[in-house]
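A note from the maintainers: we've had questions about how concatenated examples are separated. There is no special marker in the raw files; a new sequence line simply starts the next protein. For clarity in this README we add a label.
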Amino acid sequence: MAAPFTGGCACGAVRYACSAEPPMIVNCHCRDCQRASGAPFATILAAPKQALTITGEVHYHEVMSDRGSPIARGFCGTCGSRLFSFPEAPFIGVSAGSLDDPSWCRPTCDIYTDSAQPWALMNPELPKFSHMPPQ
């Protein structure tokens, strides 16, 4: 993995740097990630909150998860790039597509596979979880 890693939005108004390796990288197939990413799944890194530095103004939109808990999705207010999720948790979800160099990013599992689109191919070598993996 690459620690530290950096990234940001498409227009450069929001930038981030993380000094720690993510303990988990997931391909999330939930319907909210499908809608927010415009793709069959979103690849998300769990970045330790204390190791993540964000510059620029991040806007958040809150939605309800399938478990009924709120999820805040962070994006750039200028270009609309989706960047973060769960800003109040110990780990902040970082969208892999926003990494400056995503080539090192290797998902560790597929989650919310019950919502996966039947035409989306999943890596058969990754563990699969119908919802969130056990903590």
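[label: protein 2]
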Amino acid sequence: MYVPSDFNEGRVPVLHAAIREIAFGALVTLGADGLRASHIPMLIEPEPLPLGKLWGHLARANPQWQTLRHDVPALAIFIGPHAYISPSWYATKQATGKVVPTWNYVAIHASGALRIIDDAAHARAHLARLTAMHEAGRAAPWAIDDAPDAFIAGMLKGIVSFELTIDRLEGKWKMSQNRPAEDRAGVVSGLSAEGRDDIAALVSEPRG
């Protein structure tokens, strides 16, 4: 991923926290039949140090897990909040007119060796953790044990789980850091007026 220094976010805890919040990413692998991508929920773990690993699962019917080349790293891509940025929000527009539109966004790339784990117990443990995370805070959280064992056993036959041990982790927070302070203030105001307080907060947030 091309990451100019203004937009670089390399702090591992920050990247892990963002992956947990985004939760859903694209798993890209290279196989004998070319590139394949699957869009799936994934869990991040801080170990093994220093970059951690990702847990996920694929449908057994998905040929991606059967055709992937294990000698080529897999890539997981997570896209966070993003928004169009109008040049009309910049103070510089009024001063010189020398401005163009852009896009602000958060993107994280995690790559490394992918290990397929065709084991029902591992898949069940993964799904239990995944649902517990997303059900947390609900008035009546669902748990995997709420469903009949035979039903869950049958569902588990339809998936395989995987672990991606991360050896490269990149983060790009493109939030107008390359613009003058008055332009950034205009971006915050413009985004807020459009109901995009999520991006406005990231533009306002000090980085580093």
